[in-house]
Amino acid sequence: MLKRIAMKILSPLAVFFAIAATFSCGSGDSHVKKDVEGQVSLSGAFALYPLAVQWSNEFQALHPSVKIDVSAGGAGKGMTDVLNGMVDYAMLSRDLHQEEIESGALAFIVGRDAVIPDFNSGNPYADILRSRGLTSEEARKIWVTGEIRTWGQLLGNGEKHKINVYTRSDACGAAQTFAAWFGAKQEDLTGTAVFGDPGIAQAVQKDKWSVGFNNLAYAYDSQTHRPLEGLDAIPIDIDGDGKISDEESFYETKEKLVHAIEDDMFPSPPARNLYFVSRGAPQDSASLSFLKFVLKDGQRFNEPAGYVQISSKALNDNMKAYRSAVRASSKKENTTNDIVIMFIAFIVFILAVFSGAFFQKSLNAKRIYKQNVSSVFMFILTVSSVLLLLAMIGGLLVKALPILQENSFWDLVTSSEWKPSQKKFGFLPFITGTLAVTLISIIIALPLSLLTAISLTEYSKKLVRKFIYPALDILAALPSVIYGVWGILILIPVTGYSLITASLVLCVMVLPIMVSLFVEIFSAVPQDLRDASMSLGATRWQTTKKVVIKKSLPGIFASVVLALSKAMGETIAVMMVCGSIPAIPKGLKSGFYTLPALIGNNYGEMASVPLYESAIMFAALILLVIVVIFNILSRIILYRIQKRG
Q1: Closest by CA position to 12, among listed 389, 353, 450
Q2: Which residues share a beta bridge with 424?
Q3: Does residue 436 contact residue 592 with C-beta atoms inside 8 Å?
Q4: CA 426 → CA 187, 421, 432, 623, distances in Å?
């Protein structure tokens, strides 16, 4: 019987593979295009993003058949994307690492800019800071060693107010270049860490006692070419004499600073080259044409946008690399996406399998065939769900093996030192941060959501519920980044980048989900039980407490576990408000770091530092194991509750 079923199900496989082969063979249309057409994708450094957008707009105006997608996310993300074949070019704001070169990365210089220290223009000592500037040694004492903590220590007066230091949380060229100015690395930088150039600019704008650093394009207004409102550049005291001379004063406008970089009057670093990076020779005709445009005609847009054009020598080097890339690769036009082909073929396969009933002779045979096919598919899907979890754990474990071979598991989860370039990977701050923010958010959200659900199901009128339920559904469906933005705008000015801020953001995120679940659970309690309790003289509250809540206890517990898992894995919203400080939080107002934020911020730099990929995969494995353990324990407890009931 099973053999006949298997034969009937497997026979349509021949149809599937035949159609797939036909699609694949037919996708190689080689007719010549009159104009360049296709798709080009870029991701990476915030520093290059504004200029890359302008280049893409100008190029698409010349070649309307080309679609260009540009996304920012940090230099590290761009490098990961291009090395994994996800984009055509990475926008890079630092030099290539040797590991990246060995992985096939090919860099083209497309411009030049600088990273500049900045401060809030509302600082009471703004004029003094502009006139004296900042030396590289002072910057090191502020951002690395912490020897300069107050404004009085920096300016030599009696001001005791603390310098609020901001840095970048994401793996980026700006932080690496800025740290290189005073002989450090990004991981050495201390202070509150926020994501992206816009994030650090906004943080400094809102804090009059703060200092930070930004790419040139994000420190100046794109319209006026003067410093952004609320933000001002800290002049670099190049000669270290304690004052800014006329030769060192070129920060008034973007143009002056660009010319200073072009004339080598501005130190390098923090001046740096900007690159487009491809994995090996660019293969696609559209991407080759776009690169050629950027290296030649596109350079005229650099200076108006606040960037330095590439030099003649750099242009020659780029063109040599370009010609070498063209010779080393054969041009090809974009073709149909293989994923689309396989998807269509899979749909055809499914239809072929279920159409097997059409060939059955009797109605009863057709019915039995459909039942058997459905049973097999249900079994495959059920087994696949378990295999998927095991595959995820196994895959992460394999990827994490290199770091486990270098360090013991116990050392990794109990150490607090995070220095990837020194092969020091301490995950304890991330584990404690994840558990702390999750538990605090649930502790706050549980009573609020429980009482809200009780009010809606047991006390509110139908008209009230008619308006509240849709609102809860909308709140539950909102993207997490919106909650992160809300936290930055509303909570950060009051509580800062801290544990309590992230906990409140998470609480607001899970609250509508928990309320919706509790409402469904309470609504499932039979009305007869309520009526019986009331008829015996119990009050509404006594009925709710002794009947509704008690009957719903297993569902309440399951809902809390679901909310706990969601809160524990949240990335974007927490990443935006946590401060990204790799230290065990000492209080509710301390900055901290979570495992999801660690993965989101630093995954992009894994190709640059030995063992980094393994470390990030180990972080993902820890997070997955924690969630699995919580769910297993919850199932055990829920089983005992149901058994006792």
Answers
A1: 353
A2: 419
A3: yes
A4: 13, 13, 12, 15
Bridge partners (DSSP) of residue 66 are 38
Phi then psi for 32, rounded to 5 degrees? -85, 135
Please give the Cα distance from 617 to 619 (Å, whole number).
5
**Residue 557 corresponds to which tokens in the numbers above?**
């517990």
pTM above 0.70, yes or no: yes
Phi-psi region of 526 (alpha: psi -120 to 50; beta: other; left: phi over 0): beta
- Of residues 76 and 249, more confidence is placed in 249
Nearest one of 71, 173, 52 to 111, comparing CA atoms: 52
CA angle 418, 424, 428 (to 5 degrees): 50
The SS3 assignment for 499 reads helix
Q: Which residues pair with 211 in a beta bridge?
A: 119, 165
Residue linked to tokens 């923010």: 437
Question: Which segments of 415-512 are extended strands (E)?
Answer: 418-419, 424-425
CB-based contact 271:178 (threshold 8 Å):
no
DSSP at 150:
B
Q: Residue 89: beta bridge partners? A: 42
Give, as one character, the DSSP assignment of residue 95.
Answer: P
d(CA 584, CA 415): 11
Buried b (16+ CB within 10 A) or exposed e, 608-634: bbebbbbbbbbbbbbbbebbeeeeeeb
Confidence of residue 327 (pLDDT cuts 50, 70, 90): low
Reduced DSSP (H G I as helix, E B as strand, rest coil) percent helix, strand, coil of the chain, to 5: 60, 10, 25
Q: Give how far Cα 519 sits from Cα of 449, 534, 613, Å.
A: 9, 21, 43
Q: What is the pLDDT of residues 195-217, one digit of tens each?
A: 888 889 989 998 999 999 998 88
Contact between 468 and 476 (Cβ < 8 Å): no
Place of tokens 């209080």: 587
Give the pLDDT confidence of 497-535 residue by residue, as tens digits.
999 999 999 999 999 989 988 988 888 888 888 888 888
Q: Is the peptide bond before 270 cis (omega within 30 degrees of 0)?
A: yes
DSSP at 142: I
Cβ proximity of 234 and 117 under 8 Å: yes
Q: How many residues are recorded in the chain?
A: 645
Torsion 200-202-208-214 (CA) sign: positive
Q: With bands split at pLDDT 50, 70 and 90, how would you rate the model's confidence at 604? A: low
Burial (CB count <10 Å: 0-12, 13-18, 19+), residue 24: middle
Residues contacting 459, CB < 8 A, separation 6+: 540
Gap between the terminal Cα atoms of the chain: 44
pLDDT in tens, 216-251: 888 888 888 889 899 999 999 988 888 999 888 999
β partners of residue 165: 211
pLDDT one-digit tens code per residue, 433-482: 999 999 999 999 999 999 999 998 888 888 888 888 888 888 888 888 89
Mean model confidence pLDDT for the chain: 82
